[in-house]
Design a protein that fits this description.
single chain, alpha+beta, two-stranded antiparallel sheet, globular
């Protein structure tokens, strides 16, 4: 096996790993309640973008505070991934300290509406 073959094999393995992670994430939303929550959260992303230049997960959690929590705790990340892949949002490149106590003051990514 030469160097080029090894490089190609590594790239192929990395691509398969990414595909598996995304497939696992989509499998998690197969649960009806998660699916409904994610659809509602995507609507909340669009709603928040009408009123703000940049949004983070805190904004969506606050919008959905009266809505039942998702079945899987990583659902919010999937919401932003779906919105990004759909071309709705893009990262601003900045981060903000979370306002949520559950998140222990970590930095959260900020997003903006993607220019068309």
């Amino acid at each position: 096996m030469n160097i080029e073959d090894i490089k190609n094999k590594i790239i192929s393995q990395k691509m398969k790993a990414k595909e598996n992670k995304l497939a696992q994430a989509y499998q998690l939303i197969g649960h009806y309640e998660s699916h409904q929550w994610i659809k509602t959260a995507i609507r909340a992303v669009n709603y928040n973008l009408k009123n703000k230049d940049a949004i983070g997960a805190d904004d969506i959690w606050e919008t959905l505070e009266d809505y039942p929590e998702p079945v899987t705790p990583n659902s919010m990340g999937l919401v932003f991934k779906i919105c990004s892949k759909a071309g709705i949002i893009e990262p601003t490149g900045s981060y903000r300290k979370t306002r949520r106590k559950k998140a222990n003051g970590r930095e959260i990514k900020m997003w903006r509406r993607k220019d068309e």
